[in-house]
Amino acid sequence: MLELGRATLATSGRAVFVRAAPLAGAVGIASAIVFAPHGLEPRDVVRMMNGSVVARLAMWAVWTTLATPAVSPAFDAIGTRTIRSLRPSRAILLIVAAIVGFAQTPWVLLFARGAGAAAAALATFTAIAITSAFASRDRRLIASSVVVIALGAHAFMIAPAVVLAFVSVRQAWRGAFDEHGVSRLVCRSPAAIALAATYVARMIRSARGRFQAAAVMVFGGGAALALTLRNDPDARPIQRALVVLALPLSAACGLLAAPALETETRLLPLIRATRTRRFTLALAMALALATPSTAFAGTATIAAALAAHTSPMLAAASVAWSVAIASVIAVWARARRPSLFIAGVIAIAAAFTAGAATC
Amino acid sequence: MLSLRHVTKWFGSHRVLDDVSLDVGEGERVVLLGENGCGKSTLLQIVAGVLEVFEGTLQIPHAIGYAPERPDIPDHLLAREWLDLVSSLKRAAWVDDLDVRELLGRKVGALSLGQRQRISLLAAFTGEPPLLVLDEPTNALDARSRDRVIERVRASTALVATHDRDFADRVATRIVPIGQRA
Q1: Hey, are the CB atoms on A202 and B76 less than 8 Å from each other?
Q2: What ipTM was predicted for this assembly?
Q3: pLDDT in tens, A206-253
Q4: Nearest-Cα residue of chain A relative to residue B131
Q5: A189 touches chain B (CB under 8 A)
Q6: Partner residue opposite B84 with nearest CB, options A182, A187, A266
Q7: Which terminus of chain B is more solvent-facing, meaning fewer CB atoms within 10 Å of its CB: N or C?
């Protein structure tokens, strides 16, 4: 039994830690900005969630989107097939549930600091339930978790949350190796678009850790933008947005470049056999990096503009900015030596920040 | 159609191909036979443009249908997405010659080796290329798919590497032993 527990920690635990640690780091950086001395307090955020169903569901949706990719390897990491074949007892499922709970640490800390231990316990079991439900892709469990969240943080919700957490973990464990339907992303289209869609499919399906880290960085930048616009409403908002977002957008594109480049390398036999032009490859890389980064930048800037009571048209400038940054990083990524890539991304971020500041 | 002259290929200090010359005329189906490690796959990779650094000269048509020995399809793609990507790069629609309809909505990583091979071959056939370059095309195929591949290759100009002697006898207009001077 002890050996099985160790094996579970070495497989599921390690795989979750590898994804949850960067997530916790990125959320920590964003939190340091949002909860800075003159910024928000955790209790403000929790109070806002308790006061509005829409705000509660929205905040939980953001956390679930970020945490589910980190939690998923608990159920299907390399080695868990062998553990399954040993017919483990329910104790193994408890260990898996604890591993899933560990990945929720930043979210639980928010409730612990904002509303105390009871709220943190409820948030833990609810977060285990909803992230495991999404990992299992079981619609009834997802709907049940959403209902638990919508009903709010009442003491009597702890029992249903605990039950739902263990049912969801069990379902996710049992169905981890079933084949699930996947939305089609690559269609017959001009070569650059088809290649870009292939790279984006890789980012979303097989590099979720990087994808979520990129999202956290840009949304963290959006939160910083909202705070600076609120604190200094007379500032020129477009220039402020370009300055604040240059670094997170560059870092996000740098993170997403690796899976895109790996996919391009994997496709080399096809690319060479079809005599695909270099310009097409460069354009595909730029499109692949620009697609998620513009989506993140647009969403983050609209949210920041609404929070700071500024025009949402700010988003148009940030989208154009993210296209420019993605294009430069795409060119650098394809021409780079691996050892120089990060230095180049930092230089690009510095150049775009300085460029925006002197506008 | 295809002309190789005095091709030599080194991997480090190991010479894999030594002064190989080979012609494939239109309508010819040349099958390369040889032991493991004799350079068949290397030769096909040179013809397909995968290996660009070699000694000698090579004349090939612009478009080639290449199926590598191990289907190198990214695991994260659906079978249909791979075929659509190939269609996009070749600017030609793919045709379901190998009865892959039931595989299209599945991730490539979840397919068996034989199923991947069918998808890989279908990608090579896409766009009716003037020259097929196939590396061990019957690997892991069931009898029905194998017969269809034979039928398809016999209607094409092809350069094929295989260990499958029966396949070679059924499709080849010429068999070239490799490892000796071709």
Answers
A1: yes
A2: 0.85
A3: 888 788 889 888 988 888 888 888 887 766 888 889 999 999 999 999
A4: A273
A5: yes
A6: A187
A7: N
Query: In the predicted model, is pLDDT for residue B85 greater than 90?
Result: yes
User: What backbone phi and psi angles, to 5 degrees, belong to B80?
Assistant: -65, -35
CB-based contact B73:B82 (threshold 8 Å): yes
Q: What is the pLDDT of residues B89-121, one digit of tens each?
A: 999 999 998 989 999 999 998 899 999 999 999
- Residues of A with CB below 8 A from B52's CB? 272
pLDDT tens digits, A1-57: 778 888 889 999 999 999 899 889 888 887 887 788 877 889 988 998 998 888 899
Q: State pLDDT tens for residues A145-173.
A: 999 999 988 888 899 999 999 999 999 99
Which residue type sits at A269?
A: P
The arrangement of strands across the sheet holding B2-11 comes to B14-24, B2-11, B55-59
